[in-house]
Specification:
Elements: E1 4-9, H1 28-48, E2 53-56, H2 68-79, E3 85-88, H3 101-104, E4 111-113, E5 119-123, E6 128-132, E7 154-160, E8 162-163, E9 172-173, H4 175-179, E10 185-189, E11 195-198, E12 206-209, E13 225-232, E14 235-242, E15 248-254, H5 261-272, E16 280-286, H6 291-294, H7 298-305, E17 313-317, H8 325-329, H9 334-348, H10 352-375
Parallel strand pairs: 1-2, 2-3, 3-4, 6-7, 7-10, 8-9, 10-12, 15-16, 16-17
Antiparallel strand pairs: 1-13, 5-6, 11-12, 13-14
The chain binds manganese (II) ion.
Length: about 375
């Protein structure tokens, strides 16, 4: 029996305007270009590994944003792998509508685009059935599955949808119904986070979302992958192959205990040195600090003090206003006594974890007392 090798991707959203861009508009084209580079790299991977099947599980080309330049680019890429059979199951962002690029443009012979009803194709040399369906429009509440094939050797479903979400308006896929099918692998798209499910049915069906190969939002941090799968008599195995061009990383740094700009820059620098100089870093400063109120330009000053090899930093000040402890301490009242007592205890504490808890307790106590004053 043959071993079937395939690459499964989804949710490229090529053409979609960049969301949450944190740098100047003049440079947003760089990010757009990176999404295309990622697709190009996927095609190169398929070519170099002579993969016979490429499965694209929807949200491939963003509806309404596919310019003729983008279409030409995609076409040229697909033409680089004429020996690979390419299957596309349109998603809610690239539905198989009359005004879609899928219906309006011509596609190479090795590309098969599924319409809005299930179809099953058979490849005798691999003993493989592939069933697929696409969105006909921007939403689809009605769940359905293909007609099961009896005695099929290998069977793959390719579809864009919401697994386990029975009320979804984006093609619900019901676990119980799917369990009754003798399918080896369900290649899904829609959820941007990579995930895999295993059904406890006869074939031990594997259901898989590869996630976005290039981050589309700040929720999609870290390295992104394509999925390289194989099916043989032992079953399905999946390999994740890093494919993203550049990573988004979101970092929270607590600066409560940093009292000078130098101290803050040291802490921030040591954190960002852990990351690639190529990464897009969104840094959120949290904790207690009075810097923002005392110096309006402090963030600009801070940025200038950070390692210059990191060119893509975005620093956001989310700190809460700190208290002027020196001043409070001198007050001859309950607050002054409280600050004095807490500072003594913090100074005496040698356990770093307990020290942090005491520091938090100091600020929470001050918050509570402040509220009480307002209430009186
Ligand atoms: Mn998507």
């Amino acid at each position: 029996m043959h071993t079937i090798s395939f690459v499964h991707i989804a949710d490229l959203h090529l053409g979609e305007p960049i969301k949450g861009w944190k740098w100047d508009k003049e440079r947003v084209w760089i990010r757009q270009e990176e999404h295309q580079q990622t697709f190009k790299r996927i095609i190169t991977y398929v070519k170099e590994n002579a993969i016979p099947f490429l499965l694209i599980a929807g949200d491939f080309l963003e509806h309404g944003f596919v310019t003729s330049v983008l279409y030409q680019f995609v076409l040229e890429q697909l033409q680089r792998i004429p020996d690979t059979r390419i299957f596309i199951s349109p998603g809610n962002h690239d539905p198989y509508r009359e005004d879609s690029v899928y219906q309006q443009e011509t596609w190479p012979e090795n590309v098969y685009i599924f319409s809005d009803s299930w179809e099953t194709l058979y490849f005798p040399e691999y003993h493989l059935h592939i069933s697929g369906r696409g969105f006909g429009d921007f939403s689809d509440r009605k769940n359905s599955l293909p007609i099961p094939i009896l005695d099929a050797n290998y069977h793959i479903y390719l579809v864009h949808g919401d697994f386990k979400e029975e009320q979804s308006i984006y093609f619900p896929i019901i676990e119980k119904d799917l369990s009754e099918h003798d399918v080896d692998y369900v290649a899904l798209g829609h959820i941007h986070k990579r995930q895999t499910y295993l059904l406890k049915n006869r074939k031990g069906t594997i259901i898989h979302y590869p996630g976005t190969p290039e981050a589309r939002s700040w929720k999609e941090t870290g390295v992104r992958f394509l999925t390289h799968g194989t099916i043989d008599e032992k079953g399905v195995s999946l390999e994740k192959v890093p494919i993203s061009t550049r990573k988004y990383e979101q970092i929270k740094i607590n600066i409560t205990n940093q009292l000078s700009l130098n101290q803050i820059s040291e802490v921030v620098s040591s954190v960002i040195r852990e990351f690639d100089t190529n990464d897009y870093l969104a840094i959120q400063l949290v904790g207690r600090s009075a810097f923002g109120t005392e110096d309006k330009n402090w963030l600009i000053k801070l940025e200038k003090m950070l390692p210059i090899e990191h060119k893509w930093l975005f620093i956001e000040d989310l700190t809460l206003l700190g208290y002027d402890l020196k001043k409070l301490k001198t007050e001859q009242n309950f607050v002054g006594t409280f600050v004095q007592l807490m500072e003594t205890r913090i100074a005496q504490e040698t356990d770093q974890k307990k020290k942090r808890i005491l520091q938090q307790a100091l600020y929470r106590g001050l918050d509570a007392m402040e509220k009480e004053v307002v209430m009186q």
